[in-house]
């Protein structure tokens, strides 16, 4: 006889994230049915971490589905890629129209677009949910970014919003949008995370190598910064990491190999930006900085062969420089988020998603890795104007960047004189200066392209004449030897 359906939601995948999310949902009053491919893990979980809870176990896909109330809701927390499709195929024979499959892994958003269409064609519903916050977030309240089949949202809304982190009584979870929107927003979140960490690492390097400060002094600076405009999870844990000592009293951070790993979400964001033609330069530099860090043995050889400027002691006002660096970090973060939201707007337009940008910023205020006070200001900006083209057009951020400008420029100039790399800070300032420039030297690029490849150009408004006509693709015979035939125009 089939078991009585008692489960509010099922979860497949009992690694740390899966276990913690189950316990979190249990705490919020929901009955969760747990399953794992290695079924012995189910019994171990029930006998240990889940002992004394209302968590139910299942030893097969069939039992899992039988124990769930309709419409069935099943979260997959398994490795992104083929494993997700494999479990979906195994679930399908035991599901009924209207049942909901939720992928909570770090899946690439095109896969979620495909899975939404495939499952909807079979009468099932799919949700691709970004989950951020790591182990602790999963246990006590993550940021949840669900998207996919809109019909699924009313059935999972209560569970998701009660399980998510809460900020000022508001859940860090709301419906993001159609098909792959949930995983897309999580991808951009992770890209911004890459940028934030690179900016923080550069600030640490400038304080340590530039000003010659010890880790304890650097940690104290980050602790102070965490009480101001930079108040955020990453600044908080940066102080903790920098001041953490080994058994010999040395900071552990000084013993860590300076070769950063990556799992791909930052790279996905940078690739998406290139495909969309959106200048998300800071995340791109953050990804490339990790790639450069991975060339450790080559950098060791280079350090012995290639020389830079002679390091001189800083003779300026040290506290003023530290304050400048705080403003530089703040301004560069504003640029990074400006670029991230520009990218989301461009993709939403292309894929016809209706993204709620104020809501996305609210989702990121708590539970996730990039949570910060700063996100409340972003939410307010988009709350005032949903169609805001750029955060730099919002009065709050416009004033903040202009206030930060002098210190921002002084820091980058000094780092350059020291020979200390600051790719993320520098590209943020370059973007800012390019974005505020009415005229850029791309006119020369277009002239060169037409000279060597007959790629044509358009005329600047107000500069038209009988030869250079408005709104036409023009080719000039620059040398007198070329012809009048031009190359076709296209955008790669």
From TrEMBL:
Domain 6-phosphogluconate dehydrogenase C-terminal residue range list: 182-479
Catalysed conversion reaction: 6-phospho-D-gluconate + NADP(+) = D-ribulose 5-phosphate + CO2 + NADPH
Pfam families, per the entry: 6PGD, NAD_binding_2
EC number(s) on file: 1.1.1.44
Name of the top EC class for this enzyme: oxidoreductase
Top-rank taxon, per record: Eukaryota
Signal peptide: none
Coiled coil spans: none
Catalytic machinery residues: 186 (proton acceptor), 193 (proton donor)
Pathway: Carbohydrate degradation; pentose phosphate pathway; D-ribulose 5-phosphate from D-glucose 6-phosphate (oxidative stage): step 3/3
Keywords linked to the UniProt accession: Gluconate utilization, NADP, Oxidoreductase, Pentose shunt
Residues the entry annotates as binding substrate: 106, 132-134, 189-190, 194, 263, 290, 449, 455
Gene Ontology molecular function, alphabetical: NADP binding; phosphogluconate dehydrogenase (decarboxylating) activity
Sequence positions that bind NADP(+): 13-18, 36-38, 78-80, 106
Gene Ontology biological-process annotations: D-gluconate metabolic process; pentose-phosphate shunt, oxidative branch
Task performed by this protein: Catalyzes the oxidative decarboxylation of 6-phosphogluconate to ribulose 5-phosphate and CO(2), with concomitant reduction of NADP to NADPH.
Subunit structure: Homodimer.
UniProt cross-references to PANTHER family, sorted A to Z: 6-PHOSPHOGLUCONATE DEHYDROGENASE
Similarity section: Belongs to the 6-phosphogluconate dehydrogenase family.
Name of the protein: 6-phosphogluconate dehydrogenase, decarboxylating
Source organism: Hericium alpestre
């Amino acid at each position: 006889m089939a078991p009585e359906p008692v489960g509010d939601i099922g979860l497949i995948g009992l690694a740390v994230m899966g276990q913690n999310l189950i316990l979190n949902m249990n705490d919020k009053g929901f009955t969760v049915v747990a399953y794992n491919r290695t079924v012995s893990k189910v019994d171990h979980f029930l006998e240990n971490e889940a002992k004394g809870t209302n968590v139910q176990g299942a030893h097969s896909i069939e039992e899992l589905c039988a124990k769930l109330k309709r419409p069935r809701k099943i979260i997959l927390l398994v490795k992104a890629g083929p494993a997700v499709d494999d479990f979906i195929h195994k679930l399908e024979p035991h599901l009924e129209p209207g049942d909901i499959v939720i992928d909570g892994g770090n899946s690439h958003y095109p896969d979620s677009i495909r899975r939404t269409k495939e499952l909807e064609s079979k009468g099932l519903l799919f949700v691709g949910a970004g989950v951020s916050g790591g182990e602790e977030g999963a246990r006590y309240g993550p940021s949840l970014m669900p998207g996919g089949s809109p019909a699924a949202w009313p059935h999972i809304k209560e569970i998701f919003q009660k399980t998510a982190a809460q900020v000022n009584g508001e859940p860090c979870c709301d419906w993001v949008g159609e098909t792959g929107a949930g995983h897309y927003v999580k991808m951009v979140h992770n890209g911004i995370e890459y940028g934030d960490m690179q900016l923080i690492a550069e600030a640490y390097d400038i304080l340590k190598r530039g000003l010659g400060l010890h880790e304890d002094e650097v940690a104290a600076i980050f602790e102070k910064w965490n009480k101001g405009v930079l108040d955020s999870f990453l600044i908080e844990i940066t102080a903790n990491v920098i001041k953490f000592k080994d058994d010999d009293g040395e900071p552990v951070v000084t013993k860590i190999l300076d070769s950063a790993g990556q799992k791909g979400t930052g790279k996905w964001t940078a690739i998406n930006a290139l495909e969309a033609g959106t200048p998300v330069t800071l995340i791109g530099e953050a990804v490339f900085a990790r790639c450069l860090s991975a060339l450790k043995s080559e950098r060791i050889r280079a350090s012995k062969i290639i020389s830079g400027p002679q390091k001189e002691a800083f003779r300026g006002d040290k506290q003023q420089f530290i304050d400048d660096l705080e403003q530089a970090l703040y301004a560069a973060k504003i640029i990074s988020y400006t670029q991230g939201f520009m990218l989301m707007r461009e993709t939403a337009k292309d894929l016809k998603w209706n993204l709620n940008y104020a809501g996305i910023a609210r989702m990121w205020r708590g539970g996730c890795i990039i949570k910060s006070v700063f996100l409340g200001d972003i939410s307010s900006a988009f709350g005032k104007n949903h169609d805001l083209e750029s955060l730099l057009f919002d009065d709050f951020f416009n004033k903040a960047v202009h206030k930060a400008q002098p210190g921002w420029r002084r820091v980058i100039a000094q780092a350059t004189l020291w020979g200390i790399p600051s790719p993320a800070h520098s590209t943020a300032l370059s973007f800012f200066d390019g974005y505020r420039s009415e005229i850029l030297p791309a006119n020369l690029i277009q002239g060169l392209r037409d000279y060597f490849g007959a790629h044509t150009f358009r005329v600047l408004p107000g500069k038209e004449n009988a030869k250079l006509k408005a709104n036409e693709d023009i080719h000039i015979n620059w040398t007198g030897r070329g012809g009048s035939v031009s190359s076709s125009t296209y955008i790669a």
